Amino acid sequence: MSAEEFERLRAEMRLEARDAIADKLAVLTALATAADPTADGEFRREVHSLKGLAATFGFPGIAIIAHRLEDFLATAHSPGDDVLVFLDRAQDALDGDDAAAPDVAEVVRQLPVTRDAAFDPTDLEVRQIEIMLVAPAVVATRYVADELRACGYRLVPAPKAMEAIDFAVHSRPDLIIVSAVLDRFDGIDLICALKAMPSTRHIPVALLTSFEDGSLPLKDLPPDVPILHKSPTFADDVAAALGKVGIL
Questions:
Q1: pTM, rounded to two decimals
Q2: Count of alpha carbons within 13 angstroms of residue 189, beta-carbon side
């Protein structure tokens, strides 16, 4: 196959994928505006399908918006019409041909966020500080996520290390908190990779661990990376890490 034929085939596949994404967004909009409460499960399945379709065929902005919508559905107590905001932004990205647009980071920061149920929404100010939490979806992680949301930070969960790299490149969070224990390689490996890549090395990172500072498992951690422990001072430690890099 010649280079010209390959590019033509690639362009045709992208157009087909674009049409499939447009159809998926139309289905999601219809489900979101339906009065049928049994449509909730189908809506979640379609969102997951949209995320996979967009990621596979090179629409990273839409994939990130779909991921944010998945997390919002999993944590919001009553999503309501907020889901339409996600779908509108995904449609905007599709109309603009997505293209890993440099404004993806700004778009996702304007998406609705989950507010902590323990707080009156009028008392909790959502800060324009976005923190990506790279950690497996376990009970201990839920505690950390709840603490971050309770402090008003915009939280981006990323349970898989490779997924976290993709999200970091395109959405550029203010801080990435990485668990020492991950799925395919450990957190220190991920931190070293993020700090080595030109597209992510400027993003501050912190390590979440139960190991004591200076212990052998942490010997390869870059010296400028703060360590966060799951303790009563966790929220203060996060604020100190943000202050250290000039965000607070």
A1: 0.76
A2: 8
